[in-house]
Design brief:
The protein is an alpha+beta fold and about 300 residues long. The chain has one domain: Gamma-glutamyltranspeptidase, small (S) subunit (Glutamine Phosphoribosylpyrophosphate, subunit 1, domain 1), CATH 3.60.20.40. About 25% of the residues lie in helices and about 20% in strands. The protein contains seven helices and 13 strands. The strands form four sheets. Strands 1-2-7-8-12-13 form a six-stranded antiparallel beta sheet. Strand 5 and strand 6 form a beta hairpin. Helix 1 packs across helix 2 and helix 1 crosses helix 3. The longest helix has 21 residues. The mean pLDDT is about 90.
Length: about 300
C-alpha cells in the first residue's frame, strides 16, 4: 500500500526573504538555485535587457544542474542542499557573462571543498498553503486504479540514459516539474504562489518573485506581467530541441533585438500566449504588520481571486 510522505522543504535566501520550495522529486531546487544566483546581481528593472539576460542565464544554469544531479533521493545519493550553498551559487554566478548568452552547461562534478491544477490559500490567522497536482498529459496514463486516474509521469519524466540520476528503475519516482513556494520574512509568511505549466513553472516562479521582491509589483501586476520561457529545460521529450527563448509579444521589440545581439535565440510569440509564455499564476500577499491579504490571478489561464 502506498502512503504519503511528509518531506522537509528546501529553503534559500533572496533579497533578505526566505524562499521555501518543494524538494525532489519536484524541481523546486531550480527556483531556489536560480534566485540565489540572481541575489548577487542588482536588477535594474523588469524591462531592462540585462535583467532578463541575467534571469535567463540563472534559470538555464539551474536547469542544467537539475538535469545533471537530481533524481529520486531514495535511489540517488546526491544531496540537493549542495546546489543551494552560498559557495556553490557564487561559483554558478561567476559562470555568467553579463553581456553574452552562455552554454547553460551543468556544474563540474562536485568536490565542494498540461493538465495541472494549482491554487493558493491563506487565512486570517497567518496560515498559507500552495498546492499543485498534475496528471501530466490530458487524461494522464488513461489507467484507473480504485477510481483514481493515474498520471503518466513515468512515461515522460524518466530518461533511459545509463547511470543518469533520473534513469528509469523499478520502484523509483521520476523527477517532475511540479513545484510551489512560500516566501517568509522573519519567519512569517508574506507571499504564497504557484502556477501550472510544465517546465515553465520554475521559470515563471522566478520571474514572479523578482517582480514582487525586486520591483515592488502588486500581486495582480506580477501575475499579469509579460513572461518568457527557455527551451529545452528538463522534459526528455524536448531535450533534443534547438535552444530558443520565447517572449510574450507585449515585450518591446527593441528588447527582443537586444537579447538576440547577446546571443539568445529570442523570438516573440503572441501576447498573453498561455501555451508558451503564460500559464496561470496564482498569488496571495499577506501584509506582515496588518495581516491584510491581497490576491492576484493570471488572466492567461482559468482561475480567479476570491474571498470567503
Amino acid at each position: 500500500m502506498q502512503t504519503a510522505e511528509l518531506l522537509e522543504p528546501l529553503r534559500g535566501r533572496y533579497r533578505g526573504y526566505e524562499i521555501v520550495e518543494t524538494p525532489p522529486v519536484s524541481q523546486g531546487a531550480v527556483v531556489v538555485e536560480a534566485l540565489q544566483i540572481l541575489d548577487g546581481f542588482e536588477l535594474a528593472g523588469p524591462l531592462d535587457v540585462e535583467t532578463i539576460h541575467l534571469q535567463v542565464e540563472a534559470v538555464r544554469l539551474a536547469f542544467a544542474d537539475r538535469r545533471q544531479y537530481l533524481g529520486d533521493p531514495r535511489f540517488v545519493s546526491f544531496d540537493v542542499a549542495r546546489l543551494l550553498t552560498p559557495g556553490f551559487t557564487a561559483r554558478r554566478r561567476a559562470a555568467i557573462d553579463r553581456h553574452r548568452a552562455g552554454s547553460g552547461a551543468p556544474a563540474r562534478p562536485f568536490d565542494l571543498a498540461g493538465d495541472t491544477t494549482s491554487f493558493v490559500v491563506a487565512d486570517g490567522s497567518g496560515w498559507a498553503v500552495s498546492f499543485i497536482h498534475s496528471l501530466s498529459a490530458p487524461g494522464g496514463s488513461g489507467v484507473l486504479a480504485g477510481g483514481i486516474l493515474m498520471n503518466n509521469r513515468i512515461g515522460r519524466g524518466f530518461t533511459l540514459e545509463e547511470g543518469h540520476p533520473n534513469e528509469l528503475a523499478p520502484g523509483k519516482r521520476t523527477m517532475h516539474t511540479l513545484n510551489c513556494y512560500l516566501v517568509l520574512r522573519d519567519g512569517v509568511p508574506c507571499y504564497v504562489g504557484g502556477t501550472p505549466g510544465g517546465d515553465g513553472q520554475p521559470q515563471w516562479n522566478v520571474q514572479v518573485l523578482c517582480s514582487l521582491l525586486d520591483f515592488g509589483m502588486t500581486v495582480q501586476a506580477a501575475a499579469e506581467w509579460p513572461r518568457w520561457m527557455v527551451y529545452p529545460a528538463t522534459d526528455p521529450a524536448t531535450m533534443t530541441d534547438a535552444p530558443r527563448l520565447d517572449l510574450d509579444g507585449r515585450f518591446p521589440p527593441a528588447l527582443v533585438e537586444a537579447l538576440t545581439r547577446r546571443g539568445h535565440p529570442a523570438r516573440q510569440v503572441g501576447p498573453w500566449d498561455p501555451g508558451r509564455v503564460g500559464a496561470a499564476v496564482q498569488l496571495i500577499a499577506r501584509d506582515p504588520e496588518s495581516g491584510v491579504l491581497s490576491a492576484g490571478s493570471d488572466p492567461r489561464g482559468p482561475g480567479q481571486a476570491m474571498a470567503w
